[in-house]
Design goal:
Strand content of chain A: 15-25%
Oligomer: heterotrimer
Radius of gyration of chain B: 19 Å
Strand content of chain B: under 5%
CATH topology of the largest domain in chain A: Rossmann fold
Number of domains of chain A: 2
Largest sheet of chain A: 6 strands, mixed
Radius of gyration of chain A: 19 Å
Largest interface: B-C, 50 and 48 residues
Number of helices of chain A: 10
Distance between the termini of chain B: 41 Å
Helix content of chain A: 40-55%
Number of domains of chain B: 1
Helix content of chain B: over 70%
CATH architecture of the largest domain in chain A: 3-Layer(aba) Sandwich
Order of helices and strands of chain A: EEEHEEHEHHHHEHEHEEHH
Shape of chain A: globular
């Protein structure tokens, strides 16, 4: 079976600085793959290139046999590769439900003109969006806060909202940028469960960038390790844990910092 | 050729000062000061009143322009911008306020100074003539030198004094500056006063060459916006480059396209648009978004 | 009907009654015929302001509407005077022409954000004024004057639109025309904002990156919105030229562009009908202060500053204590 998504020799240079150097790996359908590495290892840049938020300097990203790197981000999103954001990037003055409804616009059947005149199809669309939004929020355990304005939410809910917005677009591949950052143990475990159920029940392939080692070891089917912009290892969590290069380059240096 | 170069330096030094004030205010408070041109005009009228009307020495009159505008700027910041920035749901409200202030200052200028064009006696007589390659009246040369000195002094202030360091910290990151112990409210006021003062100073300098009238405010603001866009908003070196570039473009355009009148400005506008399409952050600005 | 609630329909009904029946009755009773001109101007400026408001809806501060109003006014004037077109046909053409110009200019400048976009649009107003001065077809500083009043249009012998020149009371006719166009403009604006496109605009206004991550083609929507906005500007400008029967490069200047923006901000950016209210208050206020002679500007700007100082989120924010977005 050919992989769902392939990263092929992807390189990114900013001036003289190499953020990513010839990174290659495959992502199989329905797996949870984590990209880890110390700060400044180039994880976020790699994610941005996969979602086409920034062009590659060389190399390409192939999704379902099609090149998706260096396209416009909205086109990549329409193809089914959707990212969430590390920062609390949200629609501040929309409610949770509104945000999720807006994010479904790609499924709209009616034309923009249809919406303008209020056609039957457009009304059906809106009803369907709202119904699905409620379903999705229930699935994510967010029903209670569905009418809260996004700017009033606590940080943990914001991250869940980000995932809800991403899921509402009906993605095949969801790229999560540090979904566990700033969370305590319980919150992290809830999020781990949530991400699993996204994969198990919705059939979404998940890629995530993360610092939180226990969570990553817990959740991932496979892990790719970056250091100084280079891929230094790839494998299952147990393989990674016993990989000397990784221990040397990553675990040893950051242990104290992240309090493991 | 030499003449164009000389005119470019002359215009550029004046423009750079105008742009510096605007960019300083923008960097500190994220306020686009529509009233900058009006502040420039007031500076011109103050010098006109002291030097032209009452015979006070020119340098003292200039100082009065600076003082007047510094006080005006400080008051405007303290009683208008600061509270509006705090109370508004959107940053853009400050733009509305700035426009209101521009109208207000125009009204004040109209009532106090009238709408006539005003000029002052020459500060020095005579014309510098280098073999007809460069012809420039001495007063222009003097004003140009004064402008350059002022810019140098301003940069020195920003680089080497405590105030300057505080202002730079504030411009870079408001929250961080606050954490470092910078009194944000106080330095916002000082910065605004300083920006307004620069506008007043150029007004005072230029009144000796071009005179001053009520209608100069708006177009001056627009030119200042253009310079800031060329150089990159909120960047000091950018404002200086923007001023010099606009000054030279005008000098060249006016020399080559003299008979076509306003076409020079049209061409400058169009090239600015093309430039911004390629480099939205301006020459020196940091890339964003 | 069209997604309105009954309460909204009553409100709309009252509004329509007031502008089409109430105002003429009051003016008849008081004999203040000059108010027709004022209110007609308000209606037309409100159309252009609606466009500015719409650009704000995608998070762009537009201080260039004067440019598009001027373009619209010239296109209509040139078509009527030099090509002999009917005004009624030149009106939509003027709007469309402004929209096409907006697309061409928007392609490069809509990438700019925040104050950069604000500044470049302000500069744009100046550019159009200078272009009008420089081009031969616009007659330079002399402008185009003696534009005939709109002539009638009839289809198969049935008059659809009346001939303004043959009318006794052109003021009233212009007032009604302007009001009808304004009502249509705001109805369209309301539908647009509450349709899918409106939601996408709001998502862009709040976060362009996130919007594009959910598949919104932000570049395309920006252009569409800017074109619609400028269409409104062109429409308002063309109508204005027809009423004044003349167009000069100074008909719409930088100050007008700033005023269009002020109308929107003052009314409140979170409310579709904000720009209409803002235009009414600002223009009417300005007109009423005329009696104060040379103090007009001083009083006007002082009031303006006080309003901004104490109601920084717009006039309509008094009713909604939350402020900001609706």
């Amino acid at each position: 079976m050919s992989p769902l998504l392939q990263v092929k020799n992807v390189t990114k240079k900013y001036g003289g600085l190499t953020a990513n150097n010839a990174i290659s790996f495959d992502v199989a359908e329905n797996e949870i793959l984590s990209v880890i590495g110390p700060n400044g290892a180039g994880k976020s840049t790699l994610f941005k290139m996969i979602a086409s938020f920034t062009p590659t300097t060389s190399g390409e990203v192939i999704y379902q046999g099609e090149r998706i790197s260096n396209l416009k981000p909205h086109i990549v999103a329409r193809k089914g590769v959707v990212r969430t954001f590390q920062e609390t990037t949200i629609f501040k003055s929309m409610t949770v439900r509104e945000s999720v409804v807006v994010a479904q616009h790609l499924r709209a059947k009616a034309s923009l003109a249809g919406y303008f005149w209020g056609s039957k199809t457009a009304k059906d669309d809106v009803t369907a969006f709202e119904k699905y939004a409620d379903e999705l929020l229930e699935f994510l355990g967010m029903s209670e806060i569905s009418n809260e304005q996004a700017s009033n939410l606590p940080q943990g809910s914001l991250r869940a909202l980000g995932i809800a917005i991403g899921l509402a677009t009906d993605p095949k591949v969801l790229l999560l940028d540090e979904p566990f950052a700033g969370m305590n143990h319980d919150e992290t475990m809830n999020m781990v469960k949530l991400v699993r159920s996204v994969r198990d029940e919705r059939g979404v392939t998940v890629m995530l960038v993360e610092h939180d080692m226990p969570a990553v070891m817990n959740i991932s089917d496979r892990i790719v390790v970056l250091n100084f912009g280079e891929k230094i290892a790839e494998g299952t969590p147990s393989e990674i844990q016993s990989n000397e290069k990784v221990i040397e380059a990553y675990l040893g240096s950051v242990d104290d910092e992240i309090g493991m | 050729m030499e003449q164009i170069l000389a005119n470019g330096i002359y215009l550029g030094s004046q423009y750079a000062m105008i742009a510096l004030g605007l960019t300083l205010i923008f960097a500190l408070m994220n306020v686009l000061n529509f009233a900058h041109g009006q502040m420039y005009v007031i500076g011109g009228f103050v010098t006109y009143t002291f030097y032209g009307q009452w015979g006070v020495p020119f340098v003292l009159a200039l100082v009065m322009s600076c003082v007047t505008l510094a006080i005006l700027g400080a008051l405007i910041e303290k009683f208008l911008f600061a509270p509006v920035i705090k109370g508004s749901a959107r940053e853009e409200s400050t733009m509305l306020l700035a426009a209101g202030i521009a109208f207000f200052l125009d009204a004040v200028i109209l009532l106090v100074f009238g709408e006539k064009q005003r000029g002052v006696p020459k500060i020095v007589d005579g014309v510098f003539n280098w073999d007809f390659r460069i012809i420039m009246p001495y007063d222009r040369i003097l004003i140009c030198v004064l402008a350059i000195l002022s810019i140098v002094a301003f940069i020195g202030l920003m680089q080497y004094t405590k105030t300057g360091r505080a202002l730079r910290a504030l411009a870079q990151d408001r929250t961080a500056a606050q954490l470092m112990g910078v009194n944000v409210d106080r330095y916002s006021m000082i910065g605004f006063a300083l920006g307004a003062m620069l506008a007043g100073l150029v007004g005072g300098l230029l009144v000796t060459i071009t005179g001053v009238n009520l209608g100069m405010g708006g177009p001056t603001s627009i030119k200042a916006f253009m310079m800031v866009m060329i150089g990159g908003a909120g960047v000091i070196s950018g404002a200086i480059w923007g001023g010099i570039i606009l000054g030279f473009m005008e000098a060249i355009g006016l020399a080559l396209l003299y008979q076509y009148g306003d076409i020079t400005y049209l061409l400058i506008f169009v090239s600015l648009m093309i430039f911004l399409a390629i480099r939205p952050q301006g020459l020196m600005g940091k890339p964003w978004g | 009907m069209l997604g309105f609630t009954s309460k909204q329909l009553v409100g709309v009904g009252i509004f329509l009654f007031v502008i089409f029946i109430g105002v003429p009755l009051i003016i008849n009773a008081t004999g203040r015929w000059d108010f027709y001109f004022t209110l007609t101007s308000v209606a037309l400026l409100a159309i252009a302001s609606a466009g500015v408001w719409l650009t704000f809806y995608i998070g762009r501060i537009n201080i260039g509407q004067g440019a598009f109003a001027l373009i619209g006014a010239y296109v209509s004037a040139i078509l009527v005077v030099k090509a002999g077109w009917s005004f009624w046909i030149s009106l939509p053409v003027a709007g469309l022409f402004a929209a096409v110009v907006a697309i061409l200019i928007g392609l490069p400048i809509l990438r700019l954000r925040g104050v950069y976009f604000a500044m470049i649009t302000l500069v744009l107003t100046q550019v159009v004024t200078l272009t009008a001065l420089a081009l031969p077809i616009t007659n330079g500083a002399k402008g185009i004057s003696n534009i005939p009043l709109p002539s009638g249009i009839s289809l198969l012998g049935i008059p659809i639109l009346p001939d303004f020149a043959g009318m006794e009371n052109t003021k009233l006719a212009f007032y009604f025309t302007a009001c009808i166009i304004m009502v249509l403009t705001y109805a369209a604006l309301y539908r647009l904002v509450n349709s899918r496109l409106g939601h996408l605009c709001r998502s862009m206004q709040q976060n362009e990156e996130l919007a594009s991550s959910i598949g919104v083609n932000i570049a395309y929507i920006r252009i569409v919105i800017f074109a619609i906005s400028s269409f409104f500007g062109g429409l308002g400008g063309a109508m204005f030229g027809s009423i004044a029967q003349s167009v000069y490069p100074s008909s719409f200047q930088v100050a007008d562009s700033v005023n269009f923006m002020l109308n929107c901000f003052l009314g409140g950016l979170g409310y579709v009908f904000g720009p209409m209210l803002g235009t009414l208050v600002l223009y009417f206020g300005w007109d009423l202060l005329f009696e104060f002679g040379k103090y007009q500007m001083l009083i006007y700007s002082t009031i303006l500053i006080i309003i901004i100082r104490f109601l920084p989120n717009g006039l309509l924010s008094i009713r909604f204590d939350k402020g900001g977005d609706k």
